[in-house]
Amino acid sequence: MRRNAFWGLCLLLVGSVLLLDNLGYLAFLGVSAWQLIWPVALIGMGIWILVGSKLSPNWESRNIIVGLESAAEAEIQLDYGAGELRVESGAGPAELLNGTFEGGVEHHVQREGNRTKVRIGSNLGVFLPVHWGPHYSRRWHVELTEQIPIALTVKTGASDCRLDLEHLKVTALHLESGASSTVVTLPANAGYTEVHGSSGAASVSLRIPEGVAARIHTHGGLSSTSVDQHRFPRQGATYISPNYETAGNRADIRLDMGVGSISIR
């Protein structure tokens, strides 16, 4: 509904400019329609944002539970837009996932033998102006099982993302983010964890629990990188724990940043 109203406003303003041009009023003022269309469109967008900031949507809160059943491993993907995302341990004994989701959400579960695949995403659309304004922040809180290995993918837009994976058996973590702030605590006892991350304009902070070795490779044209070199001494383009090859718990981290900052401790 809000998306239709936004486009309706744009069409109304642009159509009005073209009508005035056809009637000769713009020529009388010494300007053309094409000189006004973009300024008028920007004014319309500004009006929409100001109006949207005064509207507080009644986000529907929905609880989703996915049973553990016979799963021995899982793939979980969270496709999230703008707002606050929290992921941590805490699912019940018979649960793979237990989450509370504000706003439109849809989920799909696929079971293949002892492997379960879960994908949860927003169905509110991706056109930004319908969600601009300080009251349009949604919240997702997701609790996962500690019992089985999990390959976790998190894709976010303009969000505040907190992933506390310390007590989980996350063996693969894939992060894709836009203009966001992401704080991740990696697993303490998952054995081997592979971490891949890419982002546009973002801040990424990784906390690696004591006792977990790491090999870290970062790349970013305009990003700043801060790594605790007491734990992870630099060797060429890589930061690596002295005991990385023999450690019982270790993380292989590769981050590709656009504009932003990386902090690893």
Describe the fold and architecture.
It is a single chain. A hairpin with a 2-residue loop joins strand 14 and strand 15 (238-240). The longest helix has 21 residues, at 2-22. Helix 1 packs antiparallel against helix 3 (33-53). With 265 residues, the chain is an alpha/beta fold. The chain has helices spanning 2-22, 25-29, 33-53; strands spanning 61-67, 73-79, 83-89, 95-102, 105-112, 115-122, 138-144, 150-156, 159-164, 170-177, 180-185, 192-207, 213-227, 234-235, 238-240, 250-264. It has 2 domains: 2-53; 61-264. The protein has a 16-stranded mixed sheet that branches. The radius of gyration is 23 Å and the shape is flat.
Task: Give short descriptive properties of this protein.
single chain, 265 residues, alpha/beta, 2 domains, 16-stranded mixed β-sheet, 3 helices, flat
Give the helices and strands, then pairings:
Elements: H1 2-22, H2 25-29, H3 33-53, E1 61-67, E2 73-79, E3 83-89, E4 95-102, E5 105-112, E6 115-122, E7 138-144, E8 150-156, E9 159-164, E10 170-177, E11 180-185, E12 192-207, E13 213-227, E14 234-235, E15 238-240, E16 250-264
Parallel strand pairs: 2-6, 2-8, 3-7, 3-9, 8-10, 9-11, 10-12, 11-12, 12-16, 13-16
Antiparallel strand pairs: 1-4, 4-7, 5-6, 13-15, 14-15
